[in-house]
Amino acid sequence: MANKRKKIGIAEKISEYFTSIADAENDDLKKIDITEGCRVMLNIPKIKSKKSYAQMNPKYKEFIDLAGNMVFTAHIENSKIVSLKEDSRWLFWKSDLIKINDDSTEL
Description:
By secondary structure, this protein is an alpha+beta fold. It has one domain (2-99). The protein is 34% helix and 21% strand. The protein has helices at 2-8, 12-25, 44-48, 58-67, and strands at residues 39-42, 72-76, 81-84, 87-93, 97-99. A five-stranded antiparallel sheet has the order 4-3-2-1-5. The longest helix is centred in the first third of the chain and has 14 residues, at 12-25. It is globular and about 35 Å long. The chain starts with a helix and ends in an 8-residue tail after the last strand. The mean pLDDT is 81.
């Protein structure tokens, strides 16, 4: 995973920080059924409702605003964190994503 982080510019410290927060806050993230290559959408209301959203990177917030109803392909960084194959600049908690059913376009 270290090579992947370097390739897409995710610093090891940032990845470790996300993982440590997840370990401390919510072990249930491991149970969310998002797997490598599955189709997902961003849970935008949930992401925007977080206390830290106002302090987030403006480019991240712009991405969230533009993502709207877009469907992405999940890339599993670890058991709790996912990047998006279509735009790997950003990391998401599994709980910030909505899995799209394979047999339909409905959520």
